[in-house]
């Protein structure tokens, strides 16, 4: 059978996989702090004794779009947006550090400071907790303070400082959960005092819905083209069989 069928089938399969990635981006167009997944195709020549006239296609995900999303003022004291480059540090279920731009913070029932995904926010000395019922204030340099209900302003207590980091982009990799982690072998970054916050605001998704829609249409047409090639190869094979049967 002509390798054209296998080549077209591989193209259709990769177009479907890339469509799934673009659809995920589109689904998170309103998710705070979301970073769009980048997609690309690359050609892989078919190795064999024949002439190099065939090439498979492979979908690759070279990384994520790290451009800053739009920042929206909320007025909520526990909403923070990282200005420019930088990340908030959170603790994952396995106890390791991960990095996010999601700045809608909240206080759990046990007083622990968490993200909207209920991941503990890490400070300079580990996860942070505030006294139950206290009002929380966050400064632009990440300093977290708390004051009890009815207490005078002079009783403000410093809880700690958010661990704001700015590792090299080349050392980061995006996980399926949307969090970023250091690549294998890379050292966890220390807090960077140059990273600052905008309080009372959240950063939105950096997904461009128009671009995502165009990508979805292009992937759909690519899939249709590959399936047409499969059909053409099948029709050619049937005609060849008919001609061979006439010679017998």
Automatic annotation (TrEMBL):
Domain Flagellar basal-body/hook protein C-terminal: 198-243
Entry-linked Pfam families: Flg_bb_rod (PF00460), Flg_bbr_C (PF06429), LlgE_F_G_D1 (PF22692)
Domain named Flagellar hook protein FlgE/F/G-like D1: residues: 81-146
Family named by the database record: Belongs to the flagella basal body rod proteins family.
Annotated ranges, domain Flagellar basal body rod protein N-terminal: 5-35
Lineage of the species this protein comes from: Bacteria, Pseudomonadati, Pseudomonadota, Betaproteobacteria, Burkholderiales
SUPFAM superfamilies: Flagellar hook protein flgE
Alphabetized InterPro entries for the sequence: Flag_bb_rod_N, Flagellar_basal_body_rod_CS, Flagellar_FlgE/F/G, Flg_bb/hook_C_dom, FlgE/F/G-like, LlgE_F_G-like_D1
Protein's cellular compartments: Bacterial flagellum basal body
Protein's UniProt keywords contain Cytoplasm: no
The name this protein goes by in its record: Flagellar basal-body rod protein FlgF
Record keywords, A-Z: Bacterial flagellum, Cell projection, Cilium, Flagellum
């Amino acid at each position: 059978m002509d390798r054209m069928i296998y080549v077209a089938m591989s193209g259709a399969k990769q177009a479907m996989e890339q469509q799934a990635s673009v659809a995920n981006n589109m689904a998170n167009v309103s998710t705070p702090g979301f970073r769009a997944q980048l997609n690309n195709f690359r050609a892989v020549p078919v190795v064999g004794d024949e002439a190099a006239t065939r090439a498979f296609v492979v979908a690759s995900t070279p990384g994520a779009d790290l451009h800053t999303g739009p920042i929206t003022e909320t007025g909520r004291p526990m909403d923070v947006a990282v200005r420019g480059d930088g990340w908030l540090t959170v603790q994952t279920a396995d106890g390791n550090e991960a990095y996010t731009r999601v700045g809608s913070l909240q206080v759990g029932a046990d007083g622990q400071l968490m993200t909207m995904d209920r991941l503990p926010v890490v400070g300079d000395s580990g996860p942070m907790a505030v006294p139950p019922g206290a009002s929380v204030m966050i400064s632009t340099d990440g300093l977290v303070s708390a004051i009890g209900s009815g207490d005078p302003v002079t009783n403000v207590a410093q809880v700690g400082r958010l661990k704001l980091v700015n590792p090299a982009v080349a050392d980061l990799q995006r996980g399926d959960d949307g969090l970023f982690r250091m690549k294998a072998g890379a050292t966890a970054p220390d807090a960077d005092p140059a990273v600052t916050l905008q309080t009372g605001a959240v950063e939105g998704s950096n997904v461009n819905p128009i671009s995502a829609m165009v990508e979805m249409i292009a992937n759909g047409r690519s899939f249709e083209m590959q399936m047409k090639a499969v059909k053409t190869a099948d029709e050619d094979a049937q005609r060849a069989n008919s001609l061979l049967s006439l010679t017998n």
